[in-house]
Specification:
This protein has 287 residues and is mainly α. Among the domains are: 100 residues, no CATH class; 80 residues, no CATH class. It contains 14 helices and no strands.
């Protein structure tokens, strides 16, 4: 039985509107949630934000030179001194680190996984793809239903998007598809316009239309709205529990991105987030 957080969820619209759009802070809301939910539920909030930590980890390990993503939950200092703090990171990061660098684990660390160095010329898939496969395996093994369904959707959605982009560029998507399942097999082999997935993937037609939009910002906005809609759909019958809060943080992350990327779109999504929260709360009161 999930815990309900009536007061917290009812207060989210006010919490958002108390913030200026330009200073909208997902981390401030996370702190508010942390103070008002059970620790095990807050662990799920942190888990949801692991993709930002993944970006920071790969940014450091692969020397990408990108800015630190502040929405992650792991302190920047751990990534700045990666060799020194690797044992403090999640196990799937540790395993990838040792395989990628070829370094040996210290005597006080578990050595359950192979430490053979990843060879860029021999592995079937790109190193980053192998890392994501390990992460998604970890995510899909979690007990919480939203976490499992959301990351399953995210993996499959990104795979379809990757296959569509590769088709446009005339390249083979095989090395870039995350996972090894019925969907990746179809995406790698099918020549049909929709990969023959119209019945299995209900967003395929929308995504095909979106990928043809010439304006980059508009295309990205439509892609994020697809993700937004899925986060809402996954919490259709959740009103005050942790799943509702997790879905909210998915949408808050999208708002955060657009406020930094494009002010006009960011403000539109900010208002949408507020309106969605109000309508969800009002509907729950009538049930």
């Amino acid at each position: 039985m999930m815990r309900n957080y009536y007061y917290l969820v009812a207060g989210l619209p006010e919490l958002i509107m108390d913030q200026d759009r330009k200073d909208f802070s997902v981390n401030a809301i996370k702190q508010e949630v942390r103070e008002n939910v059970h620790p095990s539920d807050y662990n799920l909030v942190e888990f949801l934000h692991l993709p930002y930590d993944n970006d920071n980890f790969l940014n450091k390990l692969l020397n990408r030179g990108l800015d630190f993503n502040e929405l992650g939950t792991i302190d920047q200092s751990l990534f700045d001194e990666l060799d020194e703090h690797i044992s403090e990171l999640p196990h799937y990061m540790q395993d990838f680190y040792y395989r990628y660098t070829g370094k040996k684990r210290s005597s006080d660390e578990t050595d359950d996984e192979p430490t053979d160095r990843l060879d860029l010329f021999e592995v079937e898939k790109l190193p980053e793809v192998k890392f994501l496969e390990a992460f998604y395996d970890h995510a899909l093994s979690q007990r919480n239903s939203f976490i499992r369904y959301w990351f399953s959707f995210q993996r499959d959605f990104n795979n379809v998007l990757t296959a569509l982009n590769c088709r446009r560029m005339g390249t083979d998507p095989t090395r870039q598809l995350v996972g090894n399942n019925w969907l990746t097999e179809i995406l790698a082999k099918s020549q049909a316009a929709d990969f023959g997935l119209k019945r299995e993937v209900d967003y395929i037609d929308r995504l095909i239309q979106v990928i043809d939009i010439p304006d980059v910002l508009e295309r990205e906005r439509k892609i994020d709205l697809l993700k937004w809609d899925m986060s809402v759909e996954l919490t259709t019958w959740d009103y005050f529990n942790i799943n509702f809060i997790l879905g909210f943080f998915v949408r808050a992350g999208i708002v955060h991105r657009w406020l930094k990327l494009d002010a006009k779109t960011g403000e539109e999504l900010f208002k949408k987030l507020f309106d969605d929260l109000k309508s969800s709360y009002n509907l729950s009161q009538k049930l």
